[in-house]
User: Which sequence fits this backbone?
């Protein structure tokens, strides 16, 4: 297992020179975009990147444009040295760690908007979030110029938005989703899990339990309204404040009454001050 600090780049020209040399040598480059605060879910993305490519670049950038004014940008966990050590042990070749001024220099005036996919689920609760995501990811893809970029399926709406933007803008990169990594009790790994108190952490796996029950009912051909209502009641009884709980078409993210093809059951809920999201394939 590799165990060295990856080459760190904070200068775009230097990063591009290295990536260009790799590609000239015929080496496949894979990008793993992150906001740092790395956990086993991120490291699973790096492991997949090493499996499918020759060179792995992980970006670490806490993107201000995807946070709302009352969200947790200022307290979002940051520990660059620990993150670099984890990336080294996981075998990443390079870490792209741009400053905010590099990503958004004075006079920056462009944002990417993806219609349709952003109008439901997290969209109404986080206005501007997906525009910030689509803009920063497009910049990262143009900066690193990878052959493939990997994203975790836990943020399934984000994954679909990025796939749509890449398709619409004819970007020459493959976007792949990687299955969610979970704790033994089912809780999806997230950098925000560290916000949970011990009591909240004990309650949090109920989210996965409810998704599992709804997915099982939906696979059996049942109308989803009843299982959704029962699941929301169970979550609220456990102490969650549910923003949405829905079964949606896996491609369009439009809600469905019954599952007739690939679908996802998706949820966002607050547990105390911590907003948790999760989803399961149906």
Assistant:
């Amino acid at each position: 297992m590799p165990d060295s600090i990856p080459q760190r780049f904070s200068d775009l020209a230097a990063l591009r020179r290295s990536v260009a040399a790799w590609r000239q040598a015929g080496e496949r480059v894979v990008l793993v975009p992150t906001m740092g605060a790395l956990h086993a879910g991120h490291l699973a993305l790096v492991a997949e990147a090493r499996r499918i490519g020759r060179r792995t670049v992980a970006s670490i950038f806490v993107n201000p444009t995807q946070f709302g004014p009352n969200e947790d940008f200022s307290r979002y966990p940051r520990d660059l040295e620990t993150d670099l050590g984890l990336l080294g042990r996981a075998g990443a070749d390079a870490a792209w760690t741009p400053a905010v001024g590099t990503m958004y220099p004075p006079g920056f005036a462009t944002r990417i908007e993806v219609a349709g996919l952003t109008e439901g689920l997290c969209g109404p609760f986080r206005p501007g979030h997906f525009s910030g995501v689509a803009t920063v990811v497009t910049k990262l893809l143009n900066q690193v110029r990878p052959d493939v970029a990997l994203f975790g399926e836990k943020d399934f709406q984000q994954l679909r938005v990025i796939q749509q933007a890449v398709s619409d803008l004819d970007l020459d990169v493959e976007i792949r989703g990687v299955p969610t990594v979970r704790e033994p009790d089912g809780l999806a790994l997230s950098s925000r899990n560290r916000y949970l108190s011990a009591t909240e952490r004990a309650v949090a796996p109920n989210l996965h339990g409810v998704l599992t029950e709804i997915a099982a009912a939906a696979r059996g051909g049942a109308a989803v309204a009843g299982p959704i209502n029962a699941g929301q009641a169970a979550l609220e009884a456990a102490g969650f404040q549910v923003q949405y709980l829905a079964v949606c078409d896996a491609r369009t993210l439009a809600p469905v009454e019954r599952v007739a093809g690939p679908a996802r059951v998706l949820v966002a809920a607050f547990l105390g001050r911590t907003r948790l999201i999760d989803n399961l394939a149906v």
Q: What stands out?
A: The chain is about 35% helix and 20% strand. The chain has a mean pLDDT of 97.
